[in-house]
Write a structure and sequence with these properties.
Helices cover 62% and strands 12% of the residues. The protein is α/β, with parallel strands linked by helices. The chain is elongated, with a radius of gyration of 31 Å. The longest helix is centred in the middle third of the chain and has 38 residues. It has a six-stranded mixed beta sheet, with helices on both faces. The protein folds into two domains: 201 residues, no CATH class; 153 residues, Alpha-Beta Plaits (2-Layer Sandwich). It has 14 helices and six strands. Its EC number is 2.7.7.65.
Length: 364
């Protein structure tokens, strides 16, 4: 099995989650390319029809009618693709391509009957054209190539069609296209992996591994848009109490270790969006059922119970204060600046009232 996987980069180059993300990325980034490719195919099919007309064929020949059927299918399906998600988009085009191959087989049969023999060029162009489709990986293209080869084999052995050397040249073309497509699959995934790694570096705080301030705005907007009527969103701004005193007494190295320790505590809940805002401040975003108490309000107590020594603090241990603002659906009217300002005001209030506590307010 491992030996077979080596031939298919989509099974071996990335982990399953990354491969799924790559498929979605390649679909979304090539939608316009697919549209242009469809229009090019439509134009070529119509050009072939007109050229056959000039050579004495008529509009109602099997050859021309089959090409027109392909044009109708492509142009009818194209508008529906705008509203499909990545998986449905991919599966839909795979089905359409299979239907087009079967119709092209009929075209090949009609051409062979008209000219007395099937030429090699047409089927080789189809095989190469399949390679140009950007959304399919090598396994999916192998299925389409095999369908094309099987269709021509059917014409050769189940009809009176003279295919000449078509099957031989088509097999060579498919092998060459397979080799090229496999290298392309590796190259595209390598590029995706490198871009993703650089993006993660740019969006991640090097010390704590948390998201940094740069990535906060986009993630918050995604959560605001994803909010449903039965949910609320809470944003908290957390600050470590007397952290300057800690650094001055224990040293900056121990201060960094405290930041890492608190980051791990905050990241225990995978449902929380945790961002290092800067210094000893953290932003936390939580989606929770409507009317439920935000778990962000429990963070000061959880940190206090960790009992990490801090002898220059009046509490004797490392503590934190947090300001939490909660808003309900619809949340698209709220700006990140407004939420952060209110959370900062609540955080300041928590510090004024003795620290090691949470201040909470509902917005609207």
């Amino acid at each position: 099995m491992a030996f077979i996987k080596r031939f298919f980069p989509s099974l071996s180059y990335l982990d399953p989650a990354s491969e799924q993300a790559f498929r979605h990325y390649i679909v979304e980034s090539t939608r316009h390319t697919m549209q242009r490719l469809v229009w090019v195919c439509v134009a070529l099919l119509l050009v072939f029809n007109f050229s056959d007309m000039l050579l004495g064929d008529n509009w109602f020949s099997l050859n021309n009618l089959t090409r027109l059927a392909i044009v109708v299918i492509l142009l009818s399906y194209l508008p529906f693709t705008r509203h499909l998600n990545a998986d449905s988009y991919l599966q839909g085009w795979l089905l359409v391509c299979a239907i087009v191959i079967l119709l092209l087989t009929v075209t090949s049969y009609a051409a062979a009957q008209y000219f007395g023999q099937l030429g090699e060029g047409g089927t080789m162009i189809v095989a190469i054209a399949l390679t140009a489709i950007p959304i399919f990986n090598v396994q999916q293209k192998i299925l389409l190539w095999l369908l094309l080869y099987a269709s021509l084999a059917f014409l050769k052995y189940c009809t009176q069609t003279d295919t000449g050397w078509t099957l031989f040249y088509l097999a060579i073309t498919i092998l060459l296209c397979f080799s090229w497509q496999r290298q392309l699959d590796i190259l595209l995934r390598s590029q995706f992996k490198a871009v993703r790694l650089e993006t993660e570096k740019a969006e991640t705080d090097q010390l704590t591994g948390l998201l940094n301030r740069r990535s906060f705005e986009q993630r918050l907007q995604e959560k605001l848009k994803a909010l449903t009527p039965d949910q609320q969103l809470s944003l908290g701004l957390l600050d470590i109490d007397f952290f300057k005193r800690y650094n001055d007494h224990y040293g900056h190295l121990d201060g960094d270790l405290v930041l890492v320790h608190i980051s791990r505590l905050l990241s225990q809940d995978p449902a929380l969006l945790v961002v290092r805002f800067g210094g000893e401040e953290f932003i936390l975003v939580e989606q929770h059922p409507r009317g439920a108490v935000p778990t962000l309000l429990n963070l000061p107590q959880q940190l206090f119970e960790q009992a990490h020594p801090h002898i220059t603090s009046p509490f004797g241990v490392v503590t934190a204060s947090i300001g939490v603002v909660t808003l309900s659906y619809p949340a698209t009217h709220a700006s990140s600046g407004e939420l952060m300002h209110l959370a900062d005001t609540l955080l300041y209030r928590a510090k004024e009232q003795g620290r090691n506590q949470a201040q909470h307010q509902y917005l609207g």
